[in-house]
Amino acid sequence: MENEIRYKSIGDRNSGDSMAHVGTEPNVTALTQELRRAATDYGIGSRVERVENTRYCRWAGQSEDGKKWSDNQPHGKSAFPWDGASDTRIPLADEVVNGLVDVCSTAFWRSMLRVAPTNVRSIDTAVTAHSLMDWVMNNRMYTDMTREVELLSQYLWTYGWAGVHVSWQQEIGQKEQYVTVEQLMAIAAQSPQGSVLADLPNLLANPEATDQLAELLMAAFPNLKKRKALECVKDLREEGECEIYVPTLVKNAPSIAALAPWDELAFPPETVDIQSARVVFRRCYMTEVDVMQHVDTDEWDEEWAKEAIATRGKFSNFSDFTYTLGLTNNALLSRENLVEVVYAYQKALNEDGVPGVYCTVFCPQVGGSWGKFELIDYEHGQYPFVVWRSEMIHRKIAESRGVPEICSTWQNEIKAQRDSIFDYTSLSTIPPIQVPKTRGGNLRLGPAVQIPVLRPGEISFMQPPAREPGTAFNLIAAIEAQTDRYFGRPTEKVPPAVTQMRQQRIVNNWLHGWTDAFRQVLSLTLQYVGPEELVRITGSPAQLSTNIQDFDVTLKFDVRELNTDLVTEKLKALATLVLPLDSVGVVDRTKLVGLALRAVDPTLANELIMQTGPASQKMFDETNDELGLMSLGNPPKLRENDPTAQARLNFAQQILQANPKYQQQAQADPLFQANLQKYVENLQFSIQQQQNAVTGRLGVNPNAQPGGQS
């Protein structure tokens, strides 16, 4: 790299610097040690295992029928209290997690994304930036976001924290292109005399110039390899044409990927803010083809790539426990054919003291070599990561607890009561039988089965222990009520105010993280989208600044909108009480309509709502067209009770005043004059109807002036 000075490894804690300087080579050994510290040490593996065991109801000795059998017990133990006793799974943690995921996912898709200017000079461009972000989220990234939003929420509430990687993805594909001898001859004819291209006909005709012609094709098509170039020369001479695969851009868009804690995303355990972390690791599991493709597209070191591929199936993380689902030791997913590749991001200073984010691609199983070391050129200057926390009980991110850690004992208590109810029912239905020792074990029980006896009363059922099943049911109900209150689940056992407060806190924290993520998305979009594509997307010729500091990105959602009846009543109150009192236009009716549409149906709102600028322009164009048609002798377009009548009337007056020809025609052409009068009277009637409706509700005209004039 250009900025070459001394390198201080990430493991050098005696350097006295808060930020390492960048050199020509990364210290992969130190990075590997830090990765182990971030993702393996401090009992992380055991913590993850306990969390997942709780959520997915996994323990040793399970059977598919939900009963205990001695054959399944570890270490030769016998099933307790007997073979066939209840061993039911109680998915309390799983139910709570999925309920919180529902709240977060709904809040995300129904929230309002807003891009606002940070200063008055950016007001006009902020509208364009808002349109750009709306297009990015609802078009370019929509398919990926439907998956990543839920996945992130699942990670967050299971493990207590989670994060996303925000990046700009450019994927190169290949398409076929045929090159003919005639095309090459045309190129040669247009080339200067004496140039290599002008000598193409001679090279094609000369069998000994095969290598020279292949080199020429490789220069014209940089993605062409020597072997394929030689084949193309042969095809050109024998068939008059050849087939060449040329690179083409198939993806050029921002990307957000949800990352599993400690497995796909890790950082030093003392980290309190992801942007101040000493190093951030993103771990990927790639196929052999993926690794070699990065050699071609991202210039990874080929020798290192071959060494990394040779380590497939070996990993540095705590275990593959997260890939064992269902019953214990029943591995449904395996990574044995994958290669572990780690991206290590570090903030460092160059020789001029300018900070930057540097990325090292390495494989922990390949010694001290690396695949690539580069400066990340994102203009926002941040780590391309955002982290969410389920709770704020400590400054350290990793101290946040997931749902399974909080309610594991509650889940076990419910399981114990459910098992006891099942077992008590079994005892009560068919109690143990008391028989004389001389009878042995030759009794067979069942409906209508005859049991021979020697003397009356020698065989009898044992009296089951006295127990009131209602106690177990009451305890289960109490635990469920406690869970509902703690997590703010909307049930009849929790006051609505408590549910609302706790859900709003959850949603605020959730959307705050997405605000940070979308700020990075907007910054990357402004950086990588060209002016022509920007005009095509937004329809605005405004040039946007690439400085993200010029814009504020916010996401907001009111959990009360989850109550459809409440939303309906609120909208009715606005329409019948607030708007009639708005005699001076304090209420922004355009925004009010947008809010109402989003509350009723967010999907329809995305399709129907236009930005204020385009909406006004559309109305202006319609009015202009209608006046033009009337000037040609066509009848006016009349509307019944048009809520936009005042705006259309204002536009019509502006157009008529600015066009002298319309003014002359209105004086000389009786038909145009009559049509224009009908058009204006129709708009004025709609305005009067709206005023009459207000007067009918209030009993007076709020716009009336002293003396009876309005």
Structure report:
- It is a single chain.
- A hairpin with a 5-residue loop joins strand 6 (about 340-350) and strand 7 (about 355-360).
- By secondary structure, the protein is an alpha+beta fold.
- The model is unreliable at about 1-10, about 10-20 and about 320-330 (pLDDT under 50).
- The strands form four sheets. A five-stranded antiparallel beta sheet has the order 4-5-6-7-8.
- It has 22 helices and twelve strands.
State the gist of this model.
By secondary structure, the protein is an alpha+beta fold. It is built from 22 helices and twelve strands.
Task: Describe the SSE topology.
Layout: H1 28-39, H2 44-55, H3 92-110, E1 112-117, H4 123-140, H5 142-159, E2 161-180, H6 181-190, H7 200-205, H8 210-220, H9 226-239, E3 241-259, E4 265-266, E5 280-286, H10 288-297, H11 302-309, E6 339-349, E7 355-362, E8 372-376, E9 385-389, H12 403-429, E10 433-434, E11 460-461, H13 469-487, H14 496-528, H15 531-538, E12 551-556, H16 564-578, H17 589-600, H18 602-608, H19 612-631, H20 645-658, H21 660-668, H22 670-698
Antiparallel strand pairs: 1-12, 2-3, 2-9, 4-5, 5-6, 6-7, 7-8, 10-11
Query: Based on helices, strands and strand pairing, what is the structural class?
Result: alpha+beta
Helix content: 40-55%
The total of beta strands comes to 12
- Which percent range describes the beta-strand content? 5-15%
What's the Cα radius of gyration? 36 Å
Large-scale geometry: flat
Strand order of the largest sheet: 4-5-6-7-8
Specify the biggest β-sheet: 5 strands, antiparallel
The DSSP helix count reads: 22
Average predicted local confidence, pLDDT: 81
The low-confidence runs, each spanning 5 or more residues with pLDDT under 50, are 1-9, 11-19, 319-332
What is the straight-line distance between the termini?
Answer: 75 Å
